[in-house]
Amino acid sequence: xxxxxxxxxxxxxxxxxxxxxxxxxxxxxxxxxxxxxxxxxxxxxxxxxxxxxxxxxxxxxxxxxxxxxxxxxxxxxxxxxxxxxxxxxxxxxxxxxxxxxxxxxxxxxxxxxxxxxxxxxxxxxxxxxxxxxxxxxxxxxxxxxxxxxxxxxxxxxxxxxxxxxxxxxxxxxxxxxxxxxxxxxxxxxxxxxxxxxxxxxxxxxxxxxxxxxxxxxxxxxxxxxxxxxxxxxxxxxxxxxxxxxxxxxxxxx
Length: 253
Ligand SMILES: [Zn+2]
Known about the structure:
With about 250 residues, the protein is mainly beta. The chain has a single domain, classed as Alpha carbonic anhydrase (Carbonic Anhydrase II), CATH 3.10.200. It is built from 4 helices and 14 strands. The protein is globular, with a radius of gyration of 18 Å.
């Protein structure tokens, strides 16, 4: 059961990384990039046609969210459960993002979607009435029956004092330097999603039908975005920005 409040959560300082493994770091090459010959303008040319939707898709993401481009409403029909990792879990530097495989579910009516992974973009990919944010977090879910996918996004805004941020993000970004280069893997700090789930439940959402924002740009992906940003302190944002670089696809609407 989902805890009814976050009172039992004690934010803890991230521990230093326990393990550090190298995939083949020297030869690791990202499948695509955010500039140059493998950048967004060329994604559809990469591979053997499997990325063609990046150019020919009709419902591509990200978009600028506003009253005419997405539904604005309440999240009450959605039940979000994200499983904690008190001892941390593994984060991967894919060269295109930092990705963390994780467990959880999103339920709506009789449909259940299972969390596959979550990852980060700097700056945000979606815009909100023309505004962008320093970071966007994406949780990617899949329905085990029909393989349809949903993505849940959170905008992240800076806050002023050290430790003022969302504990989950601080626990990841505080040690993100341990996966500084593509191909590296290391442990996060303890992950507790309680406050993030509370944030989701207590704010309006935007919904629209779009795509993956990375090759193969698959459609449809049902997007759900929390309308209110969560926070990260400036110090940890700078650590994350240094590792993530620029990894946002331009808006498509
Ligand atoms: Zn993403």
